[in-house]
Amino acid sequence: MASYIYQHNGIALKALEPDDTSLVYEAENDPLNLAYNGFTAPYSARQLLEYALSYSADPVADRQLRLIGIDIADDTPVGIIDLTDIDMRSLTAIVGVYVFPDRRRQGWSVKLIEAAVEYAKSVLRINRFAAKAAADNEASIRMLHRAGFVEIGRFTDWLYSPATARNVDLLLMQKPASDPRK
Question: What pLDDT, on the 0 to 100 scale, is given for residue 2?
Answer without folding.
Answer: 59
